[in-house]
Amino acid sequence: MSSSSTAVRELQRDLENKANDLSKLQKDIAKNHQVRKKYTIQLGENELVLKELDLLNEDANVYKLIGPVLVKQDLAEANANVRKRIEYISAELKRLDASLQDLEEKQYSKREAILKVQQRIQSHQAGKAKA
Amino acid sequence: MASSRGGGQQVMRMGDMEKMSLEQLKAVKEQADVDVNLLQDSLNNIRTATARLRLLHSSTTFLRQGKKMLVPLTASLYVPGTLDDADKVLVDIGTGYFVEKTMAEGKDYCERKINLLKSNFDQLVEVASKKKTLADEAGVILQAKLKQLSPSN
């Protein structure tokens, strides 16, 4: 009798730990969504800039805002910079996608594990009620 | 819940919603309402951006050399000045890049941006109205189910 109640207590502790893990995973997923939104917006803006730069003449004057001052920049250099940034952001988005998938798989398996523990607790309690 | 955002719900049909439980329906309705609000916000943002571009576009027509104006030094202090160079404008194209353009090119830039925003706006309106009908349908079915349940209680 007492051994079964300690087992239930053990399971409940286990359940609590798993629930904490799950909420942590969910927080991570929400964070991932937020960061991804930020990067997507930046990617869109950079693509607009690149389109605009592509439309310019070779001899157009391009300036970059650095702090409060406008610094003159080569069109080719600006173009390369924007391209590099788009590359970086795309890579970052891909990385975020991979980690999101990983997190969602983890979340799913955690849920399964929690369900199993809950079932075991229930069967323990049902057995106790019978006894 | 977070993972169910996006595509999945758009393929939902009336028949599917009839079969859903009350909780599911409620969730669908709430999600659709949230989406509708988000889209409405985006539409408003596009509207204000277009208005600003229109203003810029019209201001390119009356900027002439020697034009007298008041230049803001702070939000409440303006000093008189005259426009020295009316051919060249500096256009902010985003992410900190500025490009020197002639007045005509600047005007062209405004027109292009307005057209881009307009096409985005039209696309968004379509998505928003679809979402709205989905939300309304979910609301109607939810009401009907609640009515069905209440007399038996």
TrEMBL record, chain A:
Coiled-coil segments: none
Any one of the GO CC terms: cytoplasm
Keywords recorded for this protein, A-Z: Chaperone
One GO term of the biological process aspect: chaperone-mediated protein complex assembly
Pfam family, one: Prefoldin_2
Record flagged with keyword Chaperone: yes
GO molecular function: protein-folding chaperone binding; unfolded protein binding
CDD domains: Prefoldin_6 (cd23161)
Keyword Chaperone in record: yes
InterPro entries attached to this UniProt entry: PFD_beta-like (IPR002777), Prefoldin (IPR009053)
Family membership noted in the UniProt record: Belongs to the prefoldin subunit beta family.
Protein name listed in UniProt: Prefoldin subunit 6
Gene that encodes the chain: LOC110424169
From TrEMBL, chain B:
GO CC annotation: cytoplasm; prefoldin complex
Ranges annotated as spanning the membrane: none
SUPFAM superfamilies in the record: Prefoldin
GO molecular function annotations of the record: unfolded protein binding
BP-aspect Gene Ontology terms: protein folding; response to cold; RNA polymerase I assembly; RNA polymerase II core complex assembly; RNA polymerase III assembly
Family matches, as InterPro entries: PFD_alpha_archaea, Prefoldin, Prefoldin_subunit_alpha
Matching CDD domains: Prefoldin_5
Family (UniProt): Belongs to the prefoldin subunit alpha family.
Protein name as annotated: Probable prefoldin subunit 5
Lineage of producing organism: Eukaryota, Viridiplantae, Streptophyta, Embryophyta, Tracheophyta
Gene name of the record: LOC110428737
